Structures are given as C-alpha cells and as structure tokens.
Amino acid sequence: MTAADGRCVIRFKTRLKSIKVKVNYIGFAPLETTVRADASKTINLFLHEDIKQISEVTVVAQRKQTSVLQQTATIRQDALEKISSASLAKLLETVPGVSSISTGNTIAKPVIQGMHSSRILLLNDGVRLESQSWGEDHAPEIDYSGANMIEVVKGAESIRYGYGAMGGVVLLNQAALPYGHQHLKAGGTVNMGYDSNARGYNGTGTVEIGHKHVGLRLHGMYQKAGDYSTAEYT
Q: Start and end of every TonB-dependent receptor plug domain (predicted)?
C-alpha cells in the first residue's frame, strides 16, 4: 500500500541484499522489478496504461412462454332456447362461479365470484346497462331472447372493459345482420312460453331480411302474467 501521492518506504533488514517489488493499479499494466539494498534511496517507478479492446457483450436469455387462463364461459343459442323463460340471473347460474340474489320471483341479479350490482358490467351488443346498480329492487332490464350468444368474463380478463367490471362482465352478443345474399332472403323465428303459476304467457319473435348490402332484423317480445299463488295464500 502506498500513500496518496504514491510514495512507499521500504526498510531493508541487514541480511537482505534485494527484494522484488510488484506494483498494481487499476487501469495500468502491473510492474515488477528488483530493488537492491545498495541502490539509491529514491527509486521512481512508472506505470503504463493498460488499454484492452474487448468484443461486445451479448446477453442471451430464454423467455418461458406463459398464457393467462381465460376465465370466460359461453352460453350459446341452442342453450338459450331451452331455458328462454328464465330470468337472466337464473340463466347465468348455469355458469360455474355465478349465482344470483333475488327479492322475488321476477327480480334477480347475477353474482359473479361474490360481487354484484355496480361491480358487474352488462353489455348488450356493446351498450352498457346500469339500471341493476340502482338498488336491490332493480334487476337487469335485458331481454336475452334476441341474443345469439352470452359470454361471462371473470378474473383479470374483465379489467380491459374499464370501470364497473371489477366483479366480471356479462356480454350479450347479437348475430350478424343477414346481408350479403345475391337474392332477397327472409326468415324468422317464434318462441312461445307458458307458466302454470300466475297463468303467465310470453312470446318472442324475430324477422330477418337480407339482400346484398342491406340487412334488417326486427325482434319483439310480449309477456303477461297474473298473481303468483301458493297453497296457503295468493
């Protein structure tokens, strides 16, 4: 070790005639020399810069491909037709992780992983529906009979839909309009339902017309019911 100015004092013992001195400093080539006991009292040693050219450093890493589990459930049109008389909340109970809360036979809200109301986002063909967040007596005002498919999005995937989707998202998707036909094409469907309790009946109808670049769909629903009754009271 030397002082700040590089000086180093070496004291010879009487039996030594010479010693080897090796000097190292960062950025300079090491210097090794022999100092004799009968040499001058002051010896100047000069180090030379050690410049080394090295090639570029290449860092190679391997990334393990991972995929986010898609927590999305789909209810397709054939399943919708089988249970068309149920409310939306009751329909969604067929999806794992989804339940419902109700304040009556006709008022029910979907519950996705414990969250409901303003924490659940409802999108009907891209339109936000928020009436179910007003209070306990407000159920989703959706007639899903015209939907082609219903999707339930849960988990982290629901974040991309923005605010109001913390618990999940319910997507009601409509089928594409029937255009692109060279000749005029028309068709439609009619569904009828009846409830023995309350003597209620309902009907839905859809008419589609398509021709070349023009497509038209008309959908309507009618529902009527009397008072619900039990064995003891009405």
A: 66-169
